[in-house]
Amino acid sequence: MRTPLAQLRPVHVVGVGLHPYQRPSGTPYTQLGVHSVRAALTDAGLRWSDVESAYTGTAVTSMALSRLMYRHLGASGIPMVQVENASASGSSAFRQACMEVAAGLCDVAIAVGVDKPLNVTDPQRAAGLQNLVGDRVAPPTHFALLAARYMHDYGATPEQLAAVAVKNSRNGALNPNAQRREPRTIEEVLAPPQISGTLTQLQCCPIGEGAAAVIVASDDAIARLGLDRTRAVRVLSSAARSETVYDLENFDAALTRETTEQALAEAGVEATDLDVVELHDAFTVEELLYVEAMGLCKPGRAATALEDGEFEIGGRVAVSPSGGLLSMGHPIGPTGVGQVAEVTAQLRGEAGERQHAGARVGLTHMVGLGAVCVVHVLRKD
């Protein structure tokens, strides 16, 4: 029988840092990662020697990159593990760091996400699927089909799907770490090129490079190291699942529903308690599908709720105030860690122009190819 995180030692986010997400460049991944780690250490008021364990979420860069990156911070001898879980790599690394602190195996752990598109492989082709026969569908086509189904089932329009990218572009324009920092209109979002079906380029997330780091600590470490407890954010729950067989239900949404229900139940909160949500919006239709699956609105209601401003910063619940994957960007390894950094900033009241007033409870959500799903619930006490 599994033991929920909330029943173990309390785990707190005490430091966050990012390297801005950007188009692929000549910047070494070591520079990206070390920048984010040093920012997180400064934010927490810690030294590298205070960190007792490190998990690195990475998907498309290199084998054994952790040691080459962390050596620039000092050879402290700490255990380090790389975590690859597709788009959920960073979320999974954060989960591992939380579990290690919660279990009492260490007092301070760091989760770092870092990636550069250097070693991209096609897992379906590697598994022996050579073409579009045999259920192999490229992600843009998969989500274009889901968009068509959503519009057919609920009467949503292409303009309502594009409104997701418009909202998130406004948020991303306020985020100095975002890859896309230009606010867009409906007309701009709907303009060619078409990627698949009704999905245009601005309705698909950019995949570039970047890094994010989050430090978690126990109550004992906060007291022993003299950290600022008023800035600590509690990690209430960590849930991870993989897909099963669903009866006439889209597996992305069904898996999101199951994992979110588990995370909320273990955290002891309801969907209506959430103030801030960072979710996997690699394509516009995903935000609509996932807010419904999470219980933030009824099925078929997401497009209307979006139009009514319910998911805006300052609305009923701020969805993707960072800009989401659509504007913040999706460098893969860093994405889930960066979501935790954004929610932490929101719950601390430190998000600047993106601040959602009164934010106290937040949720992060990532789906990984395969499919896997990782959801965390955080609260500022």
Automatic annotation (TrEMBL):
GO terms for molecular function: acyltransferase activity, transferring groups other than amino-acyl groups. SUPFAM superfamilies: Thiolase-like (SSF53901). The lineage of its organism: Bacteria, Bacillati, Actinomycetota, Actinomycetes, Kitasatosporales. Residues 243-369 form the Thiolase C-terminal domain. Residues 27-180 form the Thiolase N-terminal domain. Pfam families: Thiolase_C_1, Thiolase_N. This is Thiolase.
